[in-house]
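Example record

The entry below shows one chain as it appears in the dataset: sequence first, then structure tokens.
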Amino acid sequence: SSVCLADKAWSSPVPVCDAVHCLSYTTPANGQFVTSGTLYGTVLNLKCSYGYTSKDNVTSTSCGSDGTWSNAKLECIEIDECSPSPCHHGNCTDGLGWYWCSCNPGYTGRQCDANVNECQSAPCKNQGTCVDQVNGYQCL
């Protein structure tokens, strides 16, 4: 330990304390940081844009005592609204924050989950009984 001597000098070199800084962190594409700074202990919190989510659910990084960030690469990736497939009987088209179902013949609805009732128009003649089928009907 250092002590102050009679000549007003320290008995040994006084330690110098320099602040630890991390390099600036590049803001990920399709995201923004809701906090800022590069000083040791700083935590950067990521908010992804609409239609995107953080890769592996990692949303923050902190500046360590060695001057490096705890998470070297934060990313915002597009959410795949078609996974798992919301379209019960059809094909899904993924958009940015939306999806669209193209229904197989005989199905309707936002998620292609409703069978079209072809008997609704009373297609059977001569008092025949209509039996609805997928993408068709049968007259009995």
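Notes for this example: The chain is about 0% helix and 30% strand. The longest strand covers residues 43-48.
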